[in-house]
Amino acid sequence: MNRLTLAERIVIECGIYQKLKLSQIAKKIGKTPGSVSREIRLNRTVALGEHPCGKDCCFAGECKIKSLCGIKECSKRCVACREYDCRDLCSRYNNTPCSILLKPPYVCNTCVRRRKCKADRAYYIAQQADAMAKRRYSDSRSKIQTRGKELEKLDKLVSPLILKGQPLTHIWSEHGEELGISQRTLYRYIDQGVLSVGNIDLRRKVAYKPRRKKKEISEGFLNQEFRKNRGYDDYLKYMEKNPDMPVIQMDTVKGCREQGKRLLTLHFCNTNMMLMFLMRDGKADTVVEQFDMLTGLLGLEEFHKIFPVILTDNGSEFKHTRELETTDDGKKRTKVFYCDPQASWQKPQIEKNHEFIRYVLPKGKTLNLYTQEDITVLMNNINSIRQESLCNKSPYEVTADKSILRLMELMRLHLIPADEIRLTSDLLKR
Q1: 173 with 25, same domain?
Q2: Secondary structure E strands in 283-361
Q3: Rounded (5°) CA angle 366-371-372
Q4: Among residues 256, 262, 264, 279, which one has the least CA distance to residue 366?
């Protein structure tokens, strides 16, 4: 039977009060009389009668049985006792329901004796019936459908990949057909504890730290020279005039020490691909050196084509705006804009991708032990993760720009097979 709507259930309730036949009610909502009958009996609300200790037995009036409780000295008839329940002790107990509930409309809505009746009663109330039906449907969907060897096979496939640090979205996109269940069902199985892994192994299920109270931003900061004509409002105006211009979000990732090595990250918003460069420190001159290195590697024209617009935060490492935007001989290579202070949500893609870095390099872990080759390994694993926003493809797989492909070749970037991806701390052993 197709599921009924609340409006259809209201029609059924009104039809019952109008004392219409089930066939007449069924005709109004375009269903069969059998469907209406099942709906009423299945989703009616039952009100238990006022018969303590099983005194609603059909033999109660004539019953003379004694000592069912085992106390032979008791002279009371069991039917008159209030300490023990006949339903638990008497094999002869028989509760015959009211005849009204055994024939259409199977409820007491229109019974004239319903207010004084002490028998079990049933009512059809549209809103309660709708809630009951939805709850039953939800419960049926939440049950574990995969059992036995199929569940064991599912566990052997999924759990090792999760322990490698792979996101569930990536696993499902690679093995969805093989799993035979939806991504939502897979999340539910883990939540219900039927697999070897649990919610604790799903990093995004772990609670985030509470947001800190936003600090006041001084006018002096907002008016600093490096931000002039390069604020977030200026960025929005520029992109409104150049809607097809690709945007690259830029940031840095710190180790455990302010003066130690840092990662410079560049995130392509259209493909979610992220480049990472290991710098000796977090100084502004060092960031400029990375830009000069890339310009020399690609050439000015290619650099401008790949990095036409860059959006970053207000970190001190990005304050040499003129040097970032132009080469030593004054030629334009990019356009840099800055987010509002304490507004990391204005560049959400790169902030989210930093989570993958922290899976392997958690906060507090020094970067001084690593080389650019190590970072390239990490970069390849992150950029090989399949993502829902990319139609279950990885950033490497959707990158088609010839200039970016050439850059990937120069940086020795390549796709990692789906099941070999690892995003845990043992990826870079130091």
Answers
A1: no
A2: 309-312, 335-338
A3: 120
A4: 256
**What was the pLDDT predicted at 35?**
92
Task: Give the pLDDT mean for 151-170.
Answer: 87
Residues 86 and 105 in one domain: no
CA gap 161, 182 in Å, rounded: 17
Amino acid sitting at position 30: G
Work out the percent of the chain whose per-residue pLDDT is above 70. Answer: 86
Within a 10 A sphere around the Cβ of 282, how many other Cβ atoms? 22
- Domain-located, residue 213: no
| Cross-strand bridge partners of residue 335 | 309
Q: Tell me the mean pLDDT in the region 349-358.
A: 92
Residue span of the structural domain in which 158 resides: 144-205
- Let me know: does 165 contact 424? Beta carbons within 8 Å: yes
Residues 238 and 387 reside in one and the same domain = yes
- Whether residues 72 and 158 share a domain: the answer is no
Same domain, 262 and 131: no
> What gap in Å lies between CA 204 and CA 202, rounded to an integer?
6
Cα dist from 388 to 159, 183, 380, 382, 423, whole Å: 20, 11, 18, 14, 18
- Residue 217 in any domain: the answer is no
Q: How far is CA 269 from CA 96, 253, 309, 352, in A?
A: 70, 18, 11, 12
As a whole number, mean pLDDT of residues 222-233 equals 79
Give the pLDDT band (50/70/90) at residue 220: very low
Tell which residue, 77, 32, 29, has the closest CA to residue 57. Answer: 77
266: closest CA among 301, 235, 303, 229?
303
**Which pLDDT tens digit goes with each residue over 21-52?**
999 999 999 999 999 999 999 999 988 766 55
Whether residues 284 and 187 fall in one domain: no
Number of domains composing the chain: 4
CB atoms closer than 10 angstroms to residue 3: 10
